[in-house]
Amino acid sequence: MEINLSDLEPRHAHDFLTSSIVPRPIAWVSSINKDGQVNLAPFSFFTGVSWSPPVLAFSVVNRSDGSIKDTVINIREVPEFVVNMVSVDLLPIMEFSARSLPYGTDRHSIKGITWIPATRIKPYRIQESKVSFECTLERIVAVSEGPDAGNLILGRIEIAHIHDELLRNGREVDWLGLDVLGRLSGNRYCAVRSVIESERN
Q: Is the pLDDT of residue 201 over 70?
């Protein structure tokens, strides 16, 4: 069967992609606007781009009315952000942060996390996140315009934070201890509970 995604209703194309590109890690992005107001939001179109220089990317899709989400507005004003990795225990708080909250109220509205200053940039990071990346903006790539259009945000990692007990050999993360949450489709998630090792890679 062949499917032309351009012929589908936008929501149907969304459902097809989010149920076939799985699992996806979640970028829990904290940003700040020029007035110092904090925003925290999760995005599951997220991946690494390169390691020299260390760059990651995540995509923020416009709302169905074509308006741009707070994260993009903030990063345009203050070109820095923190990507906080989401472990399984943080699922309820992460889901709450995905709700539409009044602009600039996230720091006081989102309970159960501890906001702490980043080391090199203005946005705060989440203490409960087992790995966090402080990033400066490399560029924003607009993918079309209007409703459901994407904004691909590339950030250079300036410094990473990791809980001490998760670092192995000074350079590797204990993936089992990280207990990272993976996004599937709809309200479904997965956890990393096993691994397949290959001698070829």
A: no
Q: Could you tell me the CATH number of the domain that includes residue 134?
A: 2.30.110.10
CB 141 within 8 A of CB 151: yes
- Number of domains present in the structure of the chain: 1
Q: Are 48 and 56 in contact (CB under 8 A)?
A: yes
Q: Is position 76 within any domain?
A: yes
Q: Report how far residue 136's alpha carbon sits from residue 108's, in angstroms, rounded to the nearest whole number.
A: 25
Burial of 138-157, coded b for 16+ CB within 10 Å and e otherwise, reads beeeeeeeeeeeebebbbbb
Backbone angles phi, psi at 92, to 5 degrees: -60, -40
Confirm whether 83 is domain-assigned.
yes
pTM score of the predicted model:
0.94
Contact residues for 74 (Cβ-Cβ < 8 A; gap 6+): 31, 32, 33, 39, 81
CB 137 within 8 A of CB 34: no
Containing structural domain, residue 115: 25-165
- Residue 181 located in a structural domain: no
12-45: pLDDT as tens digits? 999 999 999 999 999 999 999 999 999 999 999 9
> Is residue 31 in a domain?
yes
Give 181: exposed, middle or buried? Use CB within 10 Å, 0-12, 13-18, 19+: buried
Q: Residue 169 corresponds to which tokens in the numbers above?
A: 């050999």
Cα–Cα dist 168/58, whole Å: 26
